[in-house]
Amino acid sequence: MPPKVVIEVLSPGNSAAEMMRKTFFYQQHGADELIIVDPDTEDGAAYVRNEQGNFAVTPSLDGWTSPFLGIRFARMDGQLAVFRPDGTRFRTFAELEAQVREAAQRADEAAQRAERLAAKLRELGVDPDA
Fold first, then answer.
1. Which residue, 3, 32, 52, 107, has fewest beta-carbon neighbours within 10 Å?
2. pLDDT tens digit string along 70-101?
């Protein structure tokens, strides 16, 4: 069974001819939607199967909503953002990395605090591990 939706993220090595071949391949093999994202331009295109069975192109992702996934693409502060069907924005990799760093820092601070409290309990003659 072919995938309903295919998402291609362009890399510097992608040629226009290669992407045309891939688009034709996905259309011929039953994908209903192809989303191509260019991280350099922060835009792309979407191809959605029409009633005749061919791909109809949407030349820009800005303002476009996927009929199959329900996700929406829109420019925010000059960058292409992706929104869930409920309207919340997917976080960027940079935002996720920052969140992971902050959580690790909080965990480290909590471990240091726990160790200080355990040391204080030992000073008072209480075994914190008992």
1. 52
2. 999 999 888 899 999 999 999 887 888 988 99
DSSP state of 53: S
Instruction: Report the length, in residues, of the chain.
Output: 130
Pairing verdict, β 33-38 and 5-9: parallel
Q: Which CATH class is domain 5-83?
A: alpha beta
Over residues 91-115, the mean pLDDT reads 90
d(CA 113, CA 106): 10
**Per DSSP, which regions of 1-130 are E strands?**
5-9, 33-38, 43-49, 55-58, 72-76, 79-83
Tokens 């309903």 identify what position? 4
Phi, psi of 91, deg, nearest 5: -75, 150
Listed in sequence order, the residues at least 6 apart from 18 whose beta carbon sits closer than 8 Å to its beta carbon are none
Separation between Cα atoms, residue 41 and residue 68, nearest integer Å = 24
**Position 122: which residue type?**
R
